[in-house]
Amino acid sequence: MNRLMLHASELRLNHPENGDPLLLRAGLDAVWQRAMTHCGWQNTLPQIPRGEFAAESPQDSEKIEF
After folding, report:
1. What InterPro entries would the database entry show (predicted)?
2. Residue 58 lies in a domain
3. Is the full-model pTM beyond 0.85?
4. Residues 10, 53, 3, 35: is their CA dihedral positive or negative?
5. Residue from 26, 53, 50 nearest 36 by CA
6. Domain extent at residue 18
7. The total number of structural domains that make up the chain
């Protein structure tokens, strides 16, 4: 695995226009799911839905082309 393993499963902030509270949630993609299982951490995070992403993502490749 050649990528930064950083994931924010939940983000709370205020809407910039009206100040209403916003709650954004993101599930774990397949790479994260495998990493959590590999390390035995699959039961340490709150239950959040699994994220669905494209089968291939530039961030998962060896080299990212700009």
Report:
1. PsdUridine_synth_cat_dom_sf
2. no
3. no
4. positive
5. 50
6. 8-43
7. 1
